[in-house]
């Protein structure tokens, strides 16, 4: 196997176990072999590389922290973070698919589902035989999901679901959707909606300049009859979907660093090779400043997510700590991508290098799972006790 190469300026590898390094290496090998050679083409064509689903399942990307009893690997959160980092080194859209499947579909079924739901869905979600999506955001309710209008009512032996969700990753091909909707008392609850239920449609969202290799769509419910056994019994209220977001945001905090590392690696290699005025451009102070800032920010962020992972392993990571890390990682990744793009000059805008694709992808990552502003306000609330949302 290849030796792992990555910016590791503070010898953080010493904080990892041999198992962590092995997992990281195996994911990286897979990404290098299966994702990197094809991803640019799929992104250019705005097509999701569906053939990668089987491999993603095989490397354990779907629900790695879920216990083996339900098809997961029972791994710790550092392993989960490293898996997301390595997948996003390939592409944020592929990491999105894994995030949604593991953190937003398997996690709520595992945490809030009935025994029957867990047995029915989790093993098949782990192998990718079933793919899922997560419907929280609506056309008129994004940052404020509590305002949602999608609703269901008791209709005897089933529920009747009405409403619409927007911007849903994996929706166009998902077999099931975990949908958050209000019950007759206005309480948010989760329902598992299967493709094929009458009145349920998943139109694809086109013309994206970001996450082009990820399929995004709407979920439309027109009097959909949902069997009562498809209601997630274990949670009611907004904390249901928000607790899933903690999982996914944690993964993004690591994942975005993968994209940042790929941009940094590409830029430093290019800067050492590319000559202008008879010197490698890496010899110019202006380029050194960009590279030095990149490695500094990546290193700081690596420390932050590693510590967050150890807290998460001990079940001590707070939602606000997760928000800080998600926000920080995406911001630095976007800045790294923008500077890396400039270091490559004209070449930086082409698909010959991964930078512009990462940069465009990160524009979604900075918005989904809570926008940059929302995460700042979560920190603001946490440190001042003052709620600036409303
Ligand atoms: P607020 O009144 O603060 O809270 C309502 C209830 O929820 C609880 N809570 C949480 N529980 C667990 N984890 C968290 N992170 C939680 N945040 C809040 C809270 O304790 C309360 O519980 P209870 O028992 O008192 O009822 O809610 P609010 O209405 O003021 O809204 C604030 C909030 C937190 C919703 C807002 O700040 C927010 O996070 N908005 C962002 C929405 C968002 O992130 N949407 C993401 C959609 S999914 C997605 O983007 C997937 S992309 C996936 C991919 O492709 O990778
Ligand atoms: P808005 O909430 O309308 O925000 C617009 C602007 O106003 C933002 O800059 C925001 O920060 C700002 N703003 C909002 N409220 C405040 C405030 N109180 N104070 C200050 N500023 C504020 N959702 C899902 O449920 N499932 C998915 O799988 C999913 N996948 C996605 C995939 C992609 C590619 C994208 C782009 C989005 C996805 N989303 C998904 C939706 C995503 O979570 C939302 O886009 C996001 O939460 C923001 O909501 P919005 O787009 O409606 O923006």
Describe this structure in words.
With 390 residues, this protein is of the alpha+beta class. The chain has ten helices and nine strands. The protein has helices spanning 18-45, 52-58, 77-90, 92-112, 115-126, 239-273, 285-313, 319-343, 355-365, 372-384, and strands at 132-135, 151-154, 158-169, 176-182, 188-194, 200-201, 216-227, 275-276, 279-280. The strands form three sheets. It has a four-stranded antiparallel sheet, covered by helices on one side. A three-stranded mixed sheet has the order 1-4-5, covered by helices on one side. It has a two-stranded antiparallel ribbon with strand order 8-9. Helix 1 (18-45) packs parallel to helix 3, helix 6 (239-273) runs parallel beside helix 8 (319-343) and helix 8 (319-343) runs antiparallel to helix 9. The protein is globular and about 80 Å long. Bound molecules: 3-thiaglutaryl-CoA and flavin-adenine dinucleotide.
Specify the overall morphology.
Answer: globular
The share of residues in helices is 40-55%
Strand content: 5-15%
What characterizes the major β-sheet?
4 strands, antiparallel
**Which strand order do you get reading across the main beta sheet?**
2-3-7-6
Pattern of helices and strands: HHHHHEEEEEEEHEEHHHH
Estimated radius of gyration: 21 Å
Secondary-structure content class: alpha+beta
Helix segment tally: 10
The strand count comes to 9
User: Based on the structure, what is the oligomeric state of the protein chains?
Assistant: single chain
Enzyme class: oxidoreductase
Protein name: glutaryl-CoA dehydrogenase (ETF)
Domain Acyl-CoA dehydrogenase/oxidase C-terminal: 237-378
Catalytic activity: glutaryl-CoA + oxidized [electron-transfer flavoprotein] + 2 H(+) = (2E)-butenoyl-CoA + reduced [electron-transfer flavoprotein] + CO2
């Amino acid at each position: 196997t290849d030796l792992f190469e990555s910016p590791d300026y503070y010898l953080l590898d010493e904080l990892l176990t041999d198992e962590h390094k092995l997992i990281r290496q195996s994911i990286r090998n897979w990404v290098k072999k299966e994702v990197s050679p094809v991803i640019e083409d799929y992104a250019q064509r705005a097509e999701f590389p569906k053939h990668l689903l089987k491999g993603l399942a095989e490397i354990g990307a779907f629900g790695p922290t879920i216990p083996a009893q339900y098809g997961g690997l029972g791994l710790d959160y550092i392993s989960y973070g490293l898996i997301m980092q390595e997948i996003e080194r390939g592409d944020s859209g592929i990491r999105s698919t894994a995030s949604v499947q593991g953190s937003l579909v398997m996690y709520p079924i595992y945490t809030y589902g009935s025994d029957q739901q867990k047995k029915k869905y989790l093993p098949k979600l782990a192998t990718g035989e079933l793919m899922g999506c997560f419907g929280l955001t609506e056309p008129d309710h994004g940052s404020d999901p509590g305002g949602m209008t999608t609703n269901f009512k008791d209709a005897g032996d089933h529920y009747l679901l009405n409403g619409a969700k927007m911007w849903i990753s994996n929706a166009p091909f998902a077999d099931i959707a975990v949908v958050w909707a209000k019950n007759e008392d206005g309480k948010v609850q989760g329902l598992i909606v299967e493709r094929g239920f009458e009145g349920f449609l998943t139109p694809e969202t086109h013309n994206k300049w970001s996450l082009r290799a990820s399929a995004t769509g709407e979920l439309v419910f027109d009097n959909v009859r949902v069997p009562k056994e498809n209601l997630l019994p274990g949670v009611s209220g907004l904390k249901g979907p928000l607790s899933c977001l903690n999982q996914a945001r944690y993964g993004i905090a690591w994942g975005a660093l993968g994209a940042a590392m790929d941009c940094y690696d590409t830029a430093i290699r290019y800067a050492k090779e590319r000559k202008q005025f008879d010197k490698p451009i890496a010899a110019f102070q202006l380029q050194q400043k960009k590279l030095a800032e990149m490695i500094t920010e990546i290193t700081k962020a690596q420390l932050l997510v590693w510590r967050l992972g150890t807290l998460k392993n001990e079940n001590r990571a707070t939602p606000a700590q997760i928000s800080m890390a998600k926000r920080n990682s995406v911001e630095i990744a976007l800045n790294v991508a923008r500077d890396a793009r400039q270091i490559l000059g004209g070449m930086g805008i082409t698909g010959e290098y991964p930078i512009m694709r990462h940069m465009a992808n990160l524009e979604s990552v900075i918005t989904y799972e809570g926008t940059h502003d929302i995460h700042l306000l979560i920190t603001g609330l946490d440190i001042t006790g003052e709620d600036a949302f409303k």
